[in-house]
Design goal:
The structure is a homodimer. Helices cover 40% and strands 14% of the residues of chain A. Chain A is built from 13 helices and 13 strands. In chain A, the strands form three sheets. Chain A has an eight-stranded mixed sheet with strand order 2-9-8-7-6-3-4-5, sandwiched between helices. Chain A has a three-stranded antiparallel sheet with strand order 10-11-13, covered by helices on one side. A two-stranded parallel sheet of chain A has the order 1-12. In chain A, strand 6, helix 7 and strand 7 form a beta-alpha-beta unit.
Chain lengths: 425, 425
């Protein structure tokens, strides 16, 4: 297939006619498909059913060190859950705090506390004048929403195949107003990129001007491999600690996409210094999080081997969905010069860069035909993609047959938008 | 028994000798007893065991309106949980948001948001200069800790048998810097007082100078009756709504002491205007709370009748504990003029006002003999009881035999401290 930009006007008009006819035929089917969020499908939820029988009268309520999980107490979480998340995040258990059901909530609380109370004795961000945050983009819209909510200025850093553009990052952290950075370092949301060893080492070696600069290391997909050949992520905390930079790193993870998104367990890990700081808020905020749910999880996932087994089951469901998306993109869009994408080996998303100026139109066409996707721009700070190019595909929720229809239509809409754009030039 | 202040010095010296001997005999037993927190005992935790089998493959995961509780979504909580908490709090279900396992965390988040973002379009409290909060005292130490954490000046309002001193409250809210008030209106922590109808009506009728004044109505013990003759609390929201003051009220409740303190469900209820305001933060903070745990609770407690049945079981365990405390106080301290207390008909605490200047010494003596209690002063803002008089007894956690020992020793220590105080004068 020749790149569209090399087509004559007549060829484009002909192609437009074909695509429009195809589009109309889909539209007449009155589809109602949702590819908008990284929500597991029903078959994935069934994988974790055993969890719900893991704690009851027969199995007992008590942790390995004798804590009755039904009662109050235990701000750091139960011992076995701290150890499990330590394994998941590559951290010693004593540097882990296990929370409620949402790592996003833990991130929100961290940023909120930084704004109101300051980090480790530094002045509250709200009193420091303009404060900025580095946002590798495309990235996770809910990260950007947190920084925007607190009035923190977001600076877009381009993502590459190896992670954020580190030349830019190293330059930007010389500004003392730059207080931190969002990272989804493994199977990134949305591109599925895993940061290279070099990127991780350069992050660890950062010497930011701000003493309260923090890397928000959202390792949401750290065990979410889809294929046998797994990506490998260097341990940022360990690299940073080698240089005495361990206070710069706050790690987050959760079981949301290991067990149940609605009822999983989240955790953070950080240096002892940071944890003391974090606990000074937590001790006022709550008496403790849901320890029974922690115990449910550690009974089903006593160690990393159990987590890996579980993730293989998820991968068996997810892989065919990724295959459909990637194969269809390859068949329908490759060579046309109107779309680029990374072939992720894990995570929850496929991110596509369309011909600049066609992302919104593609979404509009899809929506008109009954397919909901993450809005164009959502993967950029302030919801504005300066190129109007990036779209996030979330293949997990629809069943295979619906997904095939949706992605077929996606390719038609993307090409139709590109043809119309070229014709209008 | 004659009041101690009427005793001669010789009589006091004699009594001191007796008490000291008694105290020494307890001390030699090397006790390790904890009456410090309002933690249910193990027998109470067993009451809710069925909850843990309420949601599984056999019973299903889906709410009455078809939501799969295992997956993401549903910021307000599931329909049946909103309805249940509506019944508990006397509010329509649509004015309820069901959260995680901690109502304290919801209160913290509310105050935090008021500080950072402001309430319903008003300026953030952090930008309004000195901000004050009314703290009926004795009160709940964790409430005071939240306001202190955010640098909000706490103004003590004396508690009476009918609730806070409303003359003081009405005068204080004329100050626009006064932004709110903590209330535990039913079986109050620590006194077990229920606000009178007149108190509730005067609260509803408040015309605070601050448009962003909020009553934090922590109805933690609203179904926690111990005796057949139940206290009755007027519905503040309804009274306030009659006067167009409904935005002034934010209600909180939880199942922490209905099911499991470590793994219950919490909720808030407020006017539609306030809820819109609250959701504008929540939608950034989380994707949603643990819906499976909500469903567990509504399956075991489908309605208020089921809650009432459950609370009767708790009362059957708690009542003998309260009886021990109240009977022993009556036998050992009544008539000596060194202690006053309310006889609560519900809740979790008994609060004792000792002879001024003896609360700390009583706690010290108890601690030295191996009995831990809530620290003296904890029931007052900043942990400072100006009279050094109030102590909170939490009878729920120890078994009956241990409780009897602890409260016997409490009476000995309280009287010993009073005798020593009188002798030193």
């Amino acid at each position: 297939m020749a790149p569209l930009v090399q087509c004559s006007k007549d060829q484009l008009l002909q192609r437009q006619k074909e695509l429009q006819a195809l589009y109309n035929s889909y539209k007449s089917r009155e589809l109602r498909l949702d590819m908008s969020r990284g929500k597991p499908g029903a078959d994935q939820l069934d994988i974790s059913t055993d969890l719900l029988n893991a704690v009851n009268e027969a199995t007992g309520f008590v942790t390995e060190d004798g804590v009755d999980t039904r009662n109050y107490g235990g701000l750091d979480g139960i011992t076995e859950a701290r150890r499990l998340f330590g394994e998941i995040m590559g951290m010693p258990a004593e540097l882990v705090i296990v929370g409620g059901n949402s790592s996003l909530n833990m991130m929100f609380d961290y940023i909120c506390t930084a704004c109101v109370k300051g980090i480790c004795g530094n002045a509250p961000w709200l009193t420091q004048g303009a404060v900025k945050f580095l946002c590798p983009a495309p990235g996770y819209d809910r990260h950007f929403a947190i920084t925007q909510y607190f009035g923190i200025e977001m600076i877009t850093v381009p993502m590459t195949e190896n992670g954020p553009d580190m030349d830019r990052v190293e330059a930007l952290v010389q500004d003392p107003a730059v207080k931190g950075m969002w990272c989804v370092p493994m199977y990134s949301n949305p591109q599925g990129v895993t940061y290279s060893d070099d990127t991780v080492r350069r992050l660890a070696a950062l010497n930011p001007a701000a003493p309260d600069f923090r890397i928000m290391w959202d390792n949401a997909y750290c065990v979410h491999h889809l294929y046998e050949q797994e990506d490998v992520l260097l341990n940022l905390y360990r690299e940073a600690a080698k240089l005495g930079h361990e206070d710069m790193v706050i790690q987050f993870a959760s079981t949301s996409k290991i067990s149940f998104p609605g009822a999983g367990v989240a955790a953070l890990a950080a240096s002892a210094h940071n944890l003391t700081d974090i606990r000074s808020r937590m001790t006022v905020q709550t008496i403790g999080f849901d320890k029974i749910n922690m115990l449910r999880h550690t009974r089903i996932f006593p160690d990393m081997a159990a987590v890996k087994e579980q993730m293989k089951k998820h991968a068996a469901v997810m892989r065919p969905k990724f295959d459909i998306v990637l194969n269809t993109l390859n068949t329908e869009l490759a060579g046309k010069g109107i779309a680029r994408w990374h072939n992720p080996r894990g995570g929850y998303f496929v991110s596509v860069d369309l011909m600049p100026g066609t992302a919104k139109e593609t979404i509009r066409l899809l929506k008109e035909a009954g397919v909901t996707m993450t809005p164009a721009g959502a993967t950029y700070p302030y919801g504005v993609d300066p190129e109007d190019s990036n779209l996030r595909i979330a293949p997990s929720y629809p069943p295979l047959n619906e997904l095939q229809v949706a992605i077929d239509l996606f390719c038609i809409c993307a090409e139709l938008a590109a043809v119309e754009k070229l014709l209008a030039q």
